[in-house]
Amino acid sequence: MTGRRALGRRFGWLWAAYAVSAYGSGFGFGAFPVIAVLVLHCGPAQVATLAATGRAVGALVAVPLGPWVEFRRKRPVMVAMDLTRFAALMSVPAAFALGRLSFAQLLLVSVVTAAADIAFKAASGAYLKALVPPEDLLVANSRFESTTWTSTTVGPPLGGAAIGLFGPVTTVVADAVSYLLSALGIRAIGGTELHPARTGAARLRAGDLLAGWRHILTHPALRPLFFNSIVVNGLIMASQPLLAVLLLGPLGFAPWQYGLVFAAPCVGGLLGSRLAHGLVARFGRHRVLRTAGVLRACWPLGLACVRPGVPGIVVQFGLVTCCGLFNPLLATCRLDHTAPDRVARTLAAWSVSSSAAIAALTALWGLLATVTSPRTAIAAAGVLLLATPLLLPRRENAPQDELTGAGVPDVVDRV
User: Fold this and answer.
1) Residues whose CB is less than 8 angstroms from the CB of residue 67 and which lie 6 or more positions away in sequence, other chains included
2) Residues 353/365, Cβ–Cβ less than 8 Å
3) Rounded-to-integer distance, Cα 11 and Cα 307, Å
4) I need a surface site. Which of 35, 136, 254, 407 has the fewest CB within 10 A?
5) What angle do CA 36, 41, 46 make, to 5 degrees?
6) How many whole angstroms separate alpha carbon 365 and alpha carbon 273?
7) pLDDT band at 7, cuts 50/70/90?
């Protein structure tokens, strides 16, 4: 159903640019943990520190970026963030070729790319809200989600094979080039883009930094979704470095096997994202959102029992299917409940909070894994996730635009 809906040439270019970078990221999935383990011989604590520090410091750097993005043309911001990520990632193979690659450089690159990711997401979310009619937002978000899971299905096994054939930094080069191609695709969208009009003070004020959080925390629909997604994403992502250590270390997985374990279940993400529009049309968004949110919390505990073979892939498949269904509904809900003049700040605040939570929980779970074991830490995350459905909204709220009477403008200052 979603594949037949025409959303226009400009959306087609945006989707193509997203697809290129998504496939590059899929190909480079887990590149930094692999480099840290296989090249720099890091242990669980260092791998967790790498994941946590990049997100934490990147989130701190990105705090003023939401208001900055809000009052600027969105396409130039997206292009600039793509080029920033390209340059940062290309420094890794350059240093490796010179024999100068270090753990400190991986940390720095992680910080830069994390901050650029947040700014890009804030700009692209505001861009999409103006580009696509409200009734097509779920279709658009489902297409992005489908692309994400398709690239994750195909990319990691190919990336693992490439690492085995050509060396550990091969996938970093591919990921960097994908951002360059994404920037070119965004430039190709064309059209004029007016500078957004700023209301109030001419300069960035301290209050602007908190505007996104104020909107989220005072909104009856966004507030529970915010806390639910922060906790769920934090606990799931905190387990990923530990799974890398467990699979590449004690279980002795080769890089291609490591990629396959994460890639094969991602067919479920594609399935979930493709079902989202039809299920919402039949059962309503709130019911589908709650059901998917409950089901996705039931699977991660099984990751503590992962062994070579089919059962671990089945657990991952169930988790990813539910995430693939939940994520486009969440993305659409955030846009529906946010007025056009505060989308960038709201999405930036959400991403900053998510990155900070993931960083804190990743560091904490790295310490827990060092004191106990990776399996014990993964099991603890799974147990806590069972309580997260309590944070989901209990009733459906009308979209913010409907409540305020603010409509979504035509494509003026986003394209």
Assistant:
1) 204, 208, 209, 211, 344, 345, 348
2) no
3) 42
4) 407
5) 60
6) 30
7) confident
For residue 114, pLDDT over 80 is answered with: yes
pLDDT tens, position by position, 173-191: 999 999 999 999 999 887 6
Classify the C-alpha dihedral 132-135-140-145 as positive or negative.
positive
Residue 214 sits at the vertex; the CA angle it makes with 222 and 148, to the nearest 5 degrees, is 45
Instruction: Write down the mean pLDDT value for the chain.
Output: 83
Distance CA 48, CA 381 (A): 15
Find where tokens 């989202």 sit: 276
What amino acid is encoded at 199 in this protein?
T
> Rounded to an integer, what distance in angstroms lies between the CA atom of residue 216 and that of residue 346?
7
Rounded CA-CA distance 145/271 in Å is: 10
pTM, two decimals, is: 0.81
**Where are the alpha helices (H) located in 249-406, listed in sequence order?**
255-263, 267-283, 285-296, 310-336, 343-371, 374-385, 400-404
- CA-to-CA distance for 129 and 87, rounded, in angstroms? 29
Query: Measured between alpha carbons, how far is 174 from 22 in angstroms, rounded to an integer?
Result: 11
At 235 the three-state DSSP class reads helix
End-to-end CA distance of the chain: 26
Q: How far is CA 38 from the centre of its chain?
A: 25
Give the rounded distance of the alpha carbon of 378 from its chain centre. 21
Q: Using alpha carbons, select from 69, 117, 140 the residue that is nearest to residue 332.
A: 140
Q: How many angstroms separate the CA atoms of 308 and 319, rounded?
A: 18
CA distance 271 to 149: 9
Distance CA(35)–CA(188), nearest Å, equals 34
Q: 396 by DSSP, 3-state: which?
A: coil
**What is the token pair recorded at 126?**
């505001």
What's the token pair of residue 195? 């500078």
